[in-house]
Amino acid sequence: MPLVTMKQILDDAIEKNYGVGAFNINNMEQTLAIMSAADRTESPVILQASRGARKYAGPVMIYGLVQAAMKLYPKVVVSLHLDHGNEPKTCIEAMDDGWTSVMMDGSLDASGKVPANFAYNLKVTAEVVQEAHKRGITVEGELGTLGGVEDGHGADTVILTDPDQAVEFAELTQVDALALGFGTSHGAFKFKATPKLRYDIVEAVNKKAPKLALVSHGSSSVPPELVAIVNKYGGKMPGAMGVPVDQIVNSIDYGVRKINIDTDLRIAATGAIRKLFSEKPEEFDVRKYLEPAMQAMSAVVEDRMIAFRTAGKASGIGAPVSLADMAKVYKQDNAFPKMDKINAVK
Ligand code: G3H
Ligand code: 13P
Ligand code: ZN
Predict the structure, then answer these.
(1) Contact 252, 236 (CB under 8 A)
(2) Is 216 strand, coil or helix?
């Protein structure tokens, strides 16, 4: 099966009230771990690669890894998404590289560190939608910012999303999916105490824009048992804390459809590798420590696919809709940015 658009997967999730994990990939081990879990659980899946991933492995390698994994697991319904595109140029490069979905994160400026204003966000997001929808490609935007500065995209400022502004943003830009600030945060050190997600924000947007796929970034739960393995075998992650899985699952019932997870797989792999090195210090065959890392990541993905009710949904999605057909639908629906209104916003 060819790559599908993220919209095709998320439309099914909206219709049937489930969530879809979007897992970050940088290498073969992560790609196989995620794809094999999707195959075992018969789940659709979103593979996402950040700017950092595209720099690390190169877009050709990432795209090739995904194509190879799709040959190994032909029944898996999969979309390839650009995570946290920082400017239109990055998004257009990913479209040219074969990505079937892109995120234009205009909640921050092009540095990826400084919160941007509403007018800037509208302008850059509209520029990406204009090009992407012509090609049948899905676009995710973001309004509001998450805390948690990692080496990638993220500001140290938390701005919760204003639901009315989110609805206006979606109508004006015609994005397919929108990431909200509602209490989640990137990375392994999200909070000092257990968070309380603001479901009311998700619910308010969902009520006014039920066809808009809402996105939860920073959704790793940083499982204490996996952090304990890292710390037991020489790691140092004191105070690591994430969003409990049950809170993410609750957010699905309020309208969250795409759930971004990167950190949990990093922690799972790191713990497995540290354990192997500690127990077998004589080992130096890369396969001997990457194999347990792959298994540990795959187990986390499988757990989330079951918890988010993605398991078993692959067969209901139907035949892949080509980019050309998706482009026709966007044209028919006039799903292009409302430029007159956008230009009037100061
Ligand atoms: O939200 C960011 C993702 O975890 C990707 O991280 O930019 O370090 O690849 P990265
Ligand atoms: P985590 O750091 O919680 O895994 O979030 C990942 C993410 O939001 C990628 O865009
Ligand atoms: Zn993110």
Answers:
(1) no
(2) strand
Q: What is the pLDDT of residues 20-43, one digit of tens each?
A: 999 999 999 999 999 999 999 999
* Top mutation candidate among 51, 153, 189, 216 for ligand 1, by most atoms within 8 Å of CB: 153
Q: Which residue has the tokens 């771990």?
A: 33
Q: Residue length, the chain?
A: 346
pTM of this prediction exceeds 0.85 = yes
- Residue-number span of the structural domain to which 160 is assigned: 6-329
Secondary-structure breakdown of the chain: helix, strand, coil percentages, each rounded to the nearest 5: 50, 15, 35
CA of 24 to the centre of ligand 2 (A): 8
Per the domain annotation, does 118 fall within a domain? yes
Residue 40 to residue 73: CA distance in whole angstroms: 10
**DSSP run (H or E) holding 93:** helix 88-96
* Position 236 in a domain: yes
43: in domain: yes
The whole-number average pLDDT for the span 179-206 is 96
